[in-house]
Design a protein that fits this description.
two-stranded antiparallel sheet, 7 helices
């Protein structure tokens, strides 16, 4: 509602001015439905500073107009882009999207967007034991800002969510990741070749398909094998073994065996005395020696 409401008298049609209180009483007396425009709606720019307060032409809120709560909702949520580094210890970085609840009441510890003499900044709101209000940065190279009567200050809204900016990985980083992955794949292939050779030489030590769980634990603990159990099973099933190899690996056997034998989750050096059988120890030591 504006500060002054102009109505026309029925007689003479001359306008006269009512105060807000008089207008509300008039509406109530005559059963006129009304809504008060008391909810600020911002006219937005596109960025908010997370450094020193900024008026570089990229302010987040350029002006306000007012609408009823029924039109706007309880509080308006707007998205603004963070700029600067004063909030990096709160995990707010340049380019992150801040979801701002306009007009929400700020409590101690809330991250807010504040307007200071027509400049805007994102900081932590805090009131000390002397009721002095502060805007605190989350970066030690910046100073706290005291909110005083000498400064025209408004808490524009409270940050409710932070949407992270998706990083772009450089070409050199991509190549490094790819080269490491290919090197690891080559290393795993070499490990499985050595395991196949050892399995052929020690085929008499395999008593069942579950014995491949021992083989997996050996390559896991002694050969820096980082593949999953199911990945190991697939490679072991495809392994080049002689046709008369009595107990080749089978799908799911390694996983079930490890699940049923808690000591297999330990390093193979700790198997003795923790439940491993003699034949498991014998196969384990043979594979370690021959790989």
């Amino acid at each position: 509602m504006t500060k002054e409401i102009e109505l026309k008298k029925k007689q003479g049609c001359k306008p006269y001015v009512m105060s807000p209180e008089e207008a509300l009483e008039f509406f109530d007396r005559h059963g006129i439905q009304y809504e008060i425009c008391d909810t600020p709606v911002p006219v937005l720019g596109n960025r908010v500073s997370c450094g020193v307060p900024s008026d570089t032409g990229e302010q987040v809120i350029e002006d306000y107009f007012y609408l009823p709560k029924s039109v706007v909702g309880l509080h308006l949520i707007v998205d603004v882009v963070a700029q600067g580094d004063s909030m990096i210890e709160a995990d707010i970085h340049e380019g992150d999207m801040l979801q701002l609840e306009i007009g929400a009441e700020a409590h101690d510890g809330d991250i807010v967007v504040a307007e200071i003499e027509r400049e805007y900044t994102a900081k932590v709101f805090f009131s000390d034991d002397k009721r002095q209000k502060w805007l605190l940065p989350k970066n030690q190279k910046y100073n706290a800002i005291a909110l005083t009567d000498q400064k025209e200050t408004r808490i524009s809204g409270v940050v409710r969510n932070i949407v992270k900016k998706a990083p772009r990985v450089s070409y050199s980083e991509c190549m490094d990741i790819l080269n490491r992955s290919l090197a690891k794949k080559h290393q795993e292939g070499d490990v499985m070749q050595r395991l196949a050779k050892a399995a052929r030489e020690g085929c008499h030590l395999f008593w069942a398909a579950s014995a491949w769980a021992v083989a997996y634990c050996v390559v896991r603990d002694c050969c820096d094998y980082e593949g999953s159990v199911s990945d190991f099973e697939r490679k072991a099933i495809d392994m080049n073994l002689p046709p008369d190899f009595a107990y080749p690996c089978s799908v799911g056997k390694v996983q079930r065996t490890i699940s049923n034998h808690p000591y297999m989750r330990l390093h193979v050096d700790k198997w003795k005395g923790n439940g491993a059988s003699v034949r498991e120890i014998v196969l384990m030591e043979f594979l370690r020696k021959n790989m």
